Amino acid sequence: MNKVLLTGRLTQDITVNEYGKGDNAGILTGFGVAVQGQSKDDVVFVNCTAFNGQAEFLAKWFKKGSPVEIEGRLTNDNYTDIDGGKHYTYKVVVERVSFLPTNKPEEDIKPAAKTSKYRR
Predict the structure, then answer these.
(1) DSSP secondary structure of the chain
(2) Phi and psi for 108 in degrees, rounded to 5?
């Protein structure tokens, strides 16, 4: 079973981008989550990708530093750099996003401000 559960803080503001055309069109966002490792000084940075409804939810309610719980699946990719070296990367494809408790009063929690809906 390929299942990942992360709790941490967003490392950047959410930017939503459009992809595809026609019936294959949708939106996506790529972002990072900082997760505490084995010790207090150990931080693991995990790359994540969310599509469509999850991407919209993240963009509306979360910003850099927001505590978040991410549930998803681990995927890998590889690429060859200009020197011919092969590199492997891993990321979590988001299936579910949840709020985590924060120290802020409830009235301070509001949708994240955005300048435009999507970027192409």
Answers:
(1) ---EEEEEEESS----EEE-SGGG-EEEEEEEEEEE-SSTT-EEEEEEEEEHHHHHHHHHH--TT-EEEEEEEEEEEEEE-TTS-EEEEEEEEEEEEEE---SS-GGG--PPP-SSS-B-
(2) -80, -10
Are 87 and 79 a contacting pair, CB within 8 Å? yes
> φ, ψ for residue 85 (rounded to 5)?
-75, 135
Architecture category of domain 4-108 in CATH: Beta Barrel (2.40)
Look at the block and give the residue holding tokens 């409830």: 106
pTM of the model: 0.80
Q: Which two tokens stand for residue 62?
A: 């979360």
* Residue 40: per-residue pLDDT: 83
Q: What is the pLDDT of residue 34?
A: 95
